[in-house]
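Office hours follow-up: a student asked to see two folded examples consecutively, so here they are.
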Amino acid sequence: MKSNTQTSRLLQGAFILSAAAIISKLIGTLQKIPLQNLGGDAVFGIYNTVYPLYTMLLTVAMLGLPAAISKFVAEASAGRRDEEGRRILLLSALITGISGLIIGAITYAGAPIIAEWVGNSHVMPALRTSAWGLAVVPVMSAIRGYFQGLHNMVPTAVSQIVEQSVRVTVMIVLLLYLTSQGAGAESIAAGALLGSAGGGAAGLVIMLLYLRRHRRRVKQEAAAEVAAAEVAAAVESQRVRALDAGHGLGSKQGFMGIKAGTLLAYGIPVMLGALAMPLIGLVDVFTVPRLLSSDGSEVAAMAQFGVYNRGLPLVQIITMIATSLSVVFIPALAEAKYKGDMKLIETRCSLSLRWFWLLGLAASAGLAVLAEPINMALYGDTAGSSTMTWLAFTAVGGTVSIISAALLQGLGYVRAPALHLLAAALLKAALNLLLVPQQGITGAAIAGVAAHSFAAALNVLLLYRQGHLRLRLADALARPALLTAGLALAAAAASWGTGAAATAAGIGGGRTASLAQSLLGVLAGCVVFAVGAVVLRLLSESELRQLPGIGPSLADKFKKLRLFP
């Protein structure tokens, strides 16, 4: 019964955390659209240059300690050593606070040097304002790790949503103010980056409030235990004193075993693994602006880099969904491997890869076909639509890379996905140097498609070589290609028909008409995808039910709609 309760609590916590992560990431991704609308492409380019650097520095400043705190606090809580857990939090908060302040100071003082590495001096003010966020966010993350160790995910979830909401609010308020004052692109971008510090401060306040309430509850529980112990002492004083002495020594010894070195030994490998994820984006930061500015002004280069990044929020939504869903496969495969059920491992790997491959293809094809109306609807013009078309196909490589990495991690291959991303980043750098001077931002988009596809191919190849995956060309290429072609034709036809009708009505060419083209094109593509997947036998009811977590409920819904033969 106790085991069931703990499992239920863990599943509930995972759901809360996943939902909050999706909401906060959605807010963080979609805020880029008003940023470009209000600030323009140059501001958008500067922001998208500095923000990946900020997230990388933030990852370094946290030293992987939130994960370490969660682990060691969970162990202390299981042993009823609450005081040890609180001391772990204090030690970790101190380390991350000092680390954040040092890295923030280095970023602020070294902004001219970093700007020189990037190859564009206009990023320097934004780098300096982003440094303020480094002073507060690491401490907030440490407190989040503490509550996660206690299996209480609500504080983390609330603080994530508050952090992103305040960040976007501060950003938009400063955008409106600075643009009304006629500020330059670098000043406006710096104001937008200041939102990270505002959001971090708000998130830290939320976590401190939760921490204070938690401590009050702990004190009340301790007082109640003391009162109960005093009553019991009247009858069994000698035994109670012996137990108290034993508990006190255990807490002290437990804490003495948790030193800064122990926390860092666990956290730093986690940090290094996290740094592998944004490598491909960081390659763009350090190569594309420099290559673009070699034939023109730095402001024009940043404007072009902003146009290049227009399609990224949409691709990031797709990969964000893949990331959120991929977490269910890690424990599911780990359990199957522990039981030695190789057939179940093969089935789950094949099924999940096939479906994420299909979803990635569908999203890429739809975004590619609808790139021009989507560009017009979101950003007010069609600049860079051909680049967005190419960039759309990073979604399929990114999606397969994410799910295959999760499968490998669930099977115990932890380092391989990070090494594959490193290899993909090196390929991206080489292709950028080759293609950007010739084709500009379109060359960078083509390099991105190649890099993400390369990482995905390496992951899939490892799964295949280890015997965890069956590859059939009909399932992997022929029928998915037919389904994708039908989806693309349906989306294009719906978009063209809507555009023609809008033009005939005298309202064509504007953002409203383009929005209608985009939405109806997406709807048509989704309908064809759902029906085509069943008709082409790319999905059966039994296969869908084998997906961990979401499979059975989806199968029931599809069955009610009579989509299965």
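And the second, which I mentioned at the end of office hours:
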Amino acid sequence: MLRRSFLAGTLTTISTAALVPPSASAAQASTAGAQAGAEAALDEDFLTLLTTKNNAQVPLVLADHQNPADSVRGVARKARRLVSAYVWNRSSYHHDGTLLGPLHTLYVRLRDSQHDDGTYDVGNLHSPPDSSFALQDICMMWTLLDADGQTATQEHRDILEAIIKLAGPALATGGVHTPNHRWEVSAALARINHLWPDRRYTERIDDWLAEGIDADQDGVYSERSSTYASEVTNHCLLTIAWLKDRPELVGHVRRNLAMTFYLLEPNGDVDTTASRRQDQNRIREIWWYLTQYRELALHDGNGRFTTVAKGIEQRGTGELGDFLAEVLERPELAAVLPTAEPIPEDFSQVYPEQGLARIRRGARTATLFGGTDFHDLPLIASGLSTNPTFFKLRQGAAILDSVRLSPQFFSTGHFRSDGLRRLGPKAFRLGDEVNVPYHLPLPRRYRRADGDYAMTPDGRFYSKMDFPHRPKHYRTLRTEVVVTELANGFDLAIELGESEVPFAIELCFRPGGQLTGVEQLDANGNYQLPGGTGAYVVGNDRIEFGPGNGATRVTMDPGERYTYLGGSLTPAGLRVYITGRSPLTYTLKLRCSS
């Protein structure tokens, strides 16, 4: 009834009683629920924003709703955008009959692409987790259309119902690939069970949850990914908590959102340097977290969560229209938020489990990273942290997206620190030692007359040489970087030795500003600082860097693991190189001003 009244536009206040009740063991039990259960005014600015953004999505969907390249997940999301507009009293497309034909086309495509076992192919074949992403949208659409109750959409609901009922058993018996898939499947099953209860669904949810939520004490999930935290895990845990009365799950989301304060950049980016997934080398924005911050702000009476949510709304970037469906399904999310309180803007935080440090001084932020998986698992593979960026710096709009170091040492690739250690309040150490063997003759007892030895790894390549049984001589390269925070920037004291090798330091700046004091190498964004000091300027924001160390050209070597397959680790942006030869001690001075 609440949802139906909300869709019809007859409510002026909203009860927050439907928010997940606080867990008795929640760390914030004294404040959690401070606003939950109260009768609150609607946040009219928020509703206007989502309505406007959704209105803008509709013509784009109508113009492209028969795109054969769309995945099942893309088709479901397009249909969800149209359904939101159709059922919402304030939409320009409320009960607009011109939406019904395209919606029917999208539903039929969802129906016809579903396998007899209830699953979909989305890259992966007959995939329960990938099907679950689409099923969440499909369940949401059925719920909204049912609450709207229009005769004109009865056939639509019938198609969606058949899809949902066919999918349920497959999700309750199928498997997954990644940690977040467990929560995606569980959330989809929670939605299906809410509509058409089945003990098999709840038992499967309990099985997955019994494995434990893969989060550390800081609230960071095992994939260390902002993408999967915001798009999957947080959203799914809140859905399960709401539909299955599992309030203990909210605490994981609360900790993750609170930790994200310290990854948040002033412009709304989220630092992803430590991620184990695709976003470790990508720009990620905070807008994906909007309804999560709203829900926990209301649930806990948390003004800092309000600040982040309102910041997202004020920036207005991203597909904010997609959140309209969530709010129509759960009107309590549209309540006026608690009074905003400042989020941290002056800190130096270390996260040992990630090998990550984050520093913020107002408009200046820095990231230090020494927590790749490379030293435990020397592989380049999906699901592993392999990012060679060990330092980042921002001064307002001037953004140094990465500092990397590449010694040309037996094609072992970039320097990746083996951990991060705090030396003092404003000093940190990164370091690594690489040992490359020369293999000596096999001991007599391991020799074979036919020369047919085991195929074994050398560390860089494989060969039929029985490497483990060979004595070795080693060449060693030690690298240490001591990062010291200063009042106006940072010093990166780099010590390379003991082998004599050429090296290159790469500073990659985000496009949008002007480089000065450097020599352009080509038309592809490559520059060198042979001497003196360079600068990168965006408006009034400035990052100076140097000194240069000579004009010798040294190529960044990503290592044989990349070059063997034609791979690349060249970051996008304006790349400035400082080169030299080890052994040496060199201090990269980074100075900031606005």
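Two things to take away from it. The radius of gyration is 27 Å. Residues 86 and 119 are 28 Å apart (CA to CA).
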